[in-house]
Design goal:
136 residues, Rossmann fold, five-stranded parallel beta sheet, 5 strands
């Protein structure tokens, strides 16, 4: 079984479960980076401590994928902290249609975007995973 490590910067509880369940169907075991610094206060801001953690983890290649909630633009600073070589393995998501809200992320070189309802498919696509075998 393939294993991947994901840095998930979101406080939406079902997202981790949805990602874990979808990837398990595709034969992938997910480990989420323990994020003890990311609490309620970090949802709508980006403290220097969180940004340093993001930079450290991504610059050392300790994660396979970064998933960031936009949270009214608070994700921009977190995205800026992602090492440049990991920005192609970064997904930013919104709870609804993001329209042109993705422009600041595109300026950082991030090109993967999604919505809460389908984030697990976006993660699978970013990891180049094939669809699960259909059950007959």
């Amino acid at each position: 079984m393939r294993k991947v490590k994901i840095l998930l910067l979101s406080s939406i509880q079902p997202i981790a479960s949805n990602i874990r369940n979808e990837l398990a169907k595709r034969g992938v075991e997910v480990e989420f980076v323990p994020n003890i610094l990311f609490g309620r206060d970090e949802v709508y801001n980006s403290s220097p401590a969180i940004c340093r953690m993001v930079t450290d983890l991504t610059s050392r290649g300790e994660v396979d994928l970064v998933v960031i909630a936009n949270n009214l633009g608070a994700g921009i600073e977190k995205a800026r902290a992602v090492a440049e070589n990991m920005r192609d393995k970064t997904i930013v998501f919104w709870t609804g249609d993001f329209g042109t809200d993705n422009v600041p992320y595109k300026q950082l070189g991030i090109t993967r975007f999604g919505m809460t309802a389908t984030i697990q498919e976006s993660v699978a696509e970013a990891l180049a995973l094939t669809a699960p075998a259909s059950v007959h």
